Amino acid sequence: MNVLFTIAVLAVLAMWALAVYNRLRRLRRQILVEWKQLDAREKAGDAAVDGTRYNELAAAYNAALDGFPDNLIAGLAGFRPAQKFVKTQ
């Protein structure tokens, strides 16, 4: 009986870790897509580039990286914080 309980607990922990990893990976992918769009618009000379959406995504991602226990998975998986977008002149 104890063995089955231990296996069940380990299975739940593994599913939780996988869910956290997938959420962080999805957030990082959204940040990369937004960054590419910002970079392309900035290189094209678009004066309306403000980076608000990117900064919101980066803040959510960084908050997820800092929160316990998600920071354990983030550290093991090698996730690094995103930098804020600062418009260049």
Overall description:
With 89 residues, the protein is mostly helical. It has one domain (17-89). The protein has three helices and no strands. The chain has helices spanning 2-43, 52-66, 70-77. Helix 1 (2-43) runs antiparallel to helix 2 (52-66). The radius of gyration is 18 Å and the shape is rod-shaped.
- Broad shape: rod-shaped
| Tally of separate domains | 1
Which range best describes the helical content: under 10%, 10-25%, 25-40%, 40-55%, 55-70% or over 70%?
over 70%
As a whole number of angstroms, the C-alpha radius of gyration is 18 Å
Tally of alpha and pi helices = 3
Characteristics:
89 residues, mainly alpha, 3 helices, 73% helix
